[in-house]
Structures are given as C-alpha cells and as structure tokens.
C-alpha cells in the first residue's frame, strides 16, 4: 500500500489506549489518516494521541472516552465526533475488548464473568458497528468497518465467554457486511492468534510455550503485525473485500 493510502480519511479506532488498538492508531496516522483515539481510559487515549502528534505535528488528532458496552456512551461518542469534525468517520477499527479468565472452564465460569466479557466484546461490537454503519449510510459515506475476532472463535479449552464472544463477532461482521454492502459500506474482521499485548501478558508461560510449539512461525505475534492487517482492511487496497474473517496467527495448526 502507498504510505498515504489513508490520506484525508477520518478513522475511529476503539481500544486505542494500548495493545493492538494503540499500534493501529500509530500506523493509521503514518498512512495519512486523522485519528480518533477512543478508549475506556481517557488518559491512555490522550497518551496515544500525543504520541502520534509528536511523531507528525502537522496533523491534529483527537481522543475521547467511550464505554463500548454502553449504548449511551457509544451514541455520545458519535455525537462528539460529528460535532468536532462535522461528519462521521469513513473508517472504524474496533479493537476494544477484554480477555476474561483463561483458567475458567464451563465447570467454574460464573455468570458475572460471562456477562462482563459478552457485554464488552459482543455487545460492544454490535453497538459500535451499528451506530457508525448507520451514520455512514445516512451521510452517504463509502466506509469500512474492521472488527477484532480471535483464532479462539472456533473454541478452545478454558475461557468459554471469550471464545463465544469472538465467534459472535464473526456473525455480526457478516451481517453488517450483507446489510450495509449495498450502501458501499464494508465490514470485515481480523482473527489474531496470541499477540504480545498488556491484555495477554497474564497468560501462564506454559500456555505460551504450547502455542509457540503449534505455530509455524514458532512465536506469538506483535501488535503492529495485526495493526497492518487492520489498516489494509480499512483502506481502498481492500475495496472488494467484504464480510470475511482474516486469520492472522502465524500458521497456527490446531
């Protein structure tokens, strides 16, 4: 892709305060986009904004707080963006999510643990995608939405709410793609493998070693490697790609 392939694009990135979201914000800015950094933690969102502006002071970005699991918060974010820029974003990369407890199984997963993960990962995806796809359609914007699923969408031992939520993200992605495709609004998902982010660093070392042993590249991924896939799907380089789940796991063999 051209290094300015997102030039003049207004792009919203949730979960932009850390991990994959932060690296995606940085890469989007390098590719010429004006970035809306959104995160539950306003301080880390501001940190990301300041970091990308320091790298290139010529373009001003913005940071907002959002709770993706709360409809009022998501709608307020949309209102704040339109008030600030006079238009909605033409691309949304939805990275906000939670991992839950890998040690929990169906035998010991509490209803509370289940609900927290489902609310953020699944309901949050529904709220973000629906809110901004409708805004794009109403404003006749040809847009792109990118969601983050997981290779564990197909199931794994432990952490049932996470696996279920990421399978649901794939379903939401495909339905948004079908419903909004006629308005030239695309929706795709990325399904990463194990990635070195703050969210995943509490995973026990023996589980990481087992993952590496079954991965063709023999290592976990870096957040910037997933960010580059997200940017591809958000850009015109993928203009005929719609409704897919692109796996990025280094050649993981089940």
Explain what you see.
The chain has 254 residues and is an alpha/beta fold. The chain has a single domain (10-247), classed as NAD(P)-binding Rossmann-like Domain (Rossmann fold, 3-Layer(aba) Sandwich), CATH 3.40.50.720. It has helices at residues 19-30, 42-55, 71-85, 111-138, 160-180, 205-213, 223-234, and strands spanning 10-14, 34-39, 62-65, 91-94, 144-148, 186-192, 245-248. Helix 2 (42-55) links the parallel strand 2 (34-39) and strand 3. The longest helix is centred in the middle third of the chain and has 28 residues, at 111-138. The protein is globular and about 50 Å long. It starts with 9 loop residues before the first strand and ends in a 6-residue tail after the last strand.
CATH superfamily: NAD(P)-binding Rossmann-like Domain
Spatial ordering of strands, largest sheet: 3-2-1-4-5-6-7
CATH class annotation: Alpha Beta
In total, the number of domains comes to 1
Order of helices and strands: EHEHEHEHEHEHHE
Biggest sheet, open or closed, and with what strands and sense? Answer: 7 strands, parallel
Terminal CA distance reads 32 Å
Count of alpha and pi helical runs = 7
Shape: globular
| Radius of gyration, taken over Cα atoms and rounded to an integer in Å | 17 Å
Structural class: alpha/beta
Please identify, by name, the CATH architecture: 3-Layer(aba) Sandwich
Query: Poorly predicted ranges (pLDDT <50, ≥5 residues)?
Result: none
Q: Averaging pLDDT over every residue, what do you get?
A: 91
């Amino acid at each position: 892709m051209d290094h300015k392939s997102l030039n003049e694009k207004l792009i919203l990135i949730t979960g932009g305060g850390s991990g994959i979201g932060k690296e995606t914000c940085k890469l989007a800015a390098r590719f010429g986009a004006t970035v809306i950094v959104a995160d539950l933690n306003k301080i880390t969102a501001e940190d990301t904004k300041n970091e990308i502006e320091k790298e290139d002071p010529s373009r001003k970005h913005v940071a907002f707080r959002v709770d993706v699991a709360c409809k009022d918060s998501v709608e307020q974010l949309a209102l704040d963006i339109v008030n600030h820029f006079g238009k909605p974003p033409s691309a949304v990369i939805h990275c906000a999510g939670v991992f839950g407890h890998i040690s929990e199984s169906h035998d010991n997963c509490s209803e509370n643990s289940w609900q927290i993960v489902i609310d953020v990962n699944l309901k949050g995806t529904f709220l973000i995608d629906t809110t901004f796809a409708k805004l794009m359609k109403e404003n006749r914007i040809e847009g792109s939405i990118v969601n983050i699923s997981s290779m564990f969408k197909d199931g794994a031992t432990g952490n049932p709410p996470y696996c279920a939520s990421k399978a649901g993200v794939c379903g939401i992605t495909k339905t948004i793609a079908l419903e909004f495709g006629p308005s030239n609004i695309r929706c795709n998902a990325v399904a990463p493998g194990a990635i070195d982010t703050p969210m995943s660093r509490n995973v026990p070392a023996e589980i990481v070693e087992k993952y590496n042993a079954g991965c063709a590249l023999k290592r976990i991924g870096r957040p910037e490697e997933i960010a580059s896939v997200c940017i591809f799907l958000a850009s015109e380089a993928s203009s005929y790609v719609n409704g897919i789940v692109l796996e990025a796991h280094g050649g993981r063999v089940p």
